[in-house]
Amino acid sequence: MESVKAQSYEVHIDELAQAALNQHVAKYDYSKIFLLVDKNTKKYCLPTFEKMFTGTIDSIFEIEPGEENKHIHTCMQVWEHLSQFDGDRKSLLVNLGGGVLTDLGGFVASTFKRGIDFINIPTTLLSMVDASIGGKTGVDLGSLKNQIGVINQPQMVLIFPEFLKTLDARQTRSGYAEMLKHGLIKDKEYWDLLKTQNAFEAAANIQKSIAIKNEVVIQDPTEKGIRKILNFGHTLGHAIESYCLENYDKKTLLHGEAIAVGMILEGYLSHKLTGLPKLSLNEIKEVFLQHFDKEEFDGHDIDAILKLLKYDKKNSHGNINFVLLQSIGVAVTDIKVPDDLFEEAFAYYRE
């Protein structure tokens, strides 16, 4: 399957990925090669990786999985490991895991010795279609998503669809939400394909989502303009994800589950503010609720979620900026939302 050319690297898929990895390591004289895994990828993905990799791993470091471990304390552990095992500026860090691990591993590599090379091998559908493109690295600040980080590009990203066999259905659906988002913001035909076919794990659709995100990122690497459209559903979705993460009486939501709620809510705001037709809004809600459970939010929950909006990364000069839809496939940025519409949006979600 054809590779996707990003800014300064390529995303290779399947057989090309294995060849690219081994050729790269053979070409560059790395002083040390470190592998970062979590408990799950060490058990389910590492054996496959070791069979396909012809180089030598000098050290493997394991972290705990999950968003709750995506913080600076975990980075400290990895930095200390790299230092303890004589990592230097000519070292390579290979990140084998989902979006939490590749975000964190990319940040660790970008800051250790002022920057070492890293390669991302995403192992979840979400990380393949989302975190694999764009060079965003970073960690959470408490429960606040991705507050600390840098944009820095990997040497390459390697997609092995066989790793999807290690996922449960919930993890797969989480990635599916991001794929649906790509259709909503940029490609109605792709949205129509995904909503009617249970084919979101097909390698061709993974490649399509990567290509859509890549097209946006190349135009705006540092998120000053059009790249903001990739955040559709994420302003409220991230606030919901953070709120559920820090409140033990709420079910902890996967990223895709939270932004699925966010896309319905922001779809409603789009209908009220930017002309999204009511039929399209209802279609968006229907598609997401076919695949994702409806979450319960009372008045207290909603107030707390809305207070978290002030931490959104798109904000500037005290304004909360939303990405909304004019139609399916057409997104607009930097939209201000009147406060009274938030309660209406949650009421529509609850209907």
Give a structural overview.
The strands form three sheets. A seven-stranded mixed sheet has the order 1-2-9-6-5-3-4. It has helices at residues 15-27, 39-44, 46-52, 72-84, 99-111, 125-131, 169-186, 188-196, 203-219, 234-246, 255-273, 278-291, 299-307, 340-350; strands spanning 4-5, 10-13, 33-38, 59-63, 92-97, 117-122, 139-141, 144-148, 156-159, 322-327, 330-335. By secondary structure, the protein is of the alpha/beta class. The chain is 48% helix and 15% strand.
Structural key phrases:
single chain; 351 residues; alpha/beta; Rossmann fold; 2 domains; 7-stranded mixed β-sheet; 15% strand; globular; cobalt; EC 4.2.3.4; nucleotide-binding; lyase
Q: Per CATH, which architecture of the largest domain? A: 3-Layer(aba) Sandwich
Question: What is the number of E strands?
Answer: 11
- Global shape: globular
Radius of gyration: 20 Å
Structure class: alpha/beta
State the separation between the terminal residues, measured CA to CA: 43 Å
Question: How helical, in percent, are the residues?
Answer: 40-55%
GO molecular function: 3-dehydroquinate synthase activity; metal ion binding; nucleotide binding
Protein name: 3-dehydroquinate synthase
Enzyme class: lyase
EC number: 4.2.3.4
Can I get a quick summary?
The protein has 351 residues and is of the alpha/beta class. The protein is built from 14 helices and 11 strands.
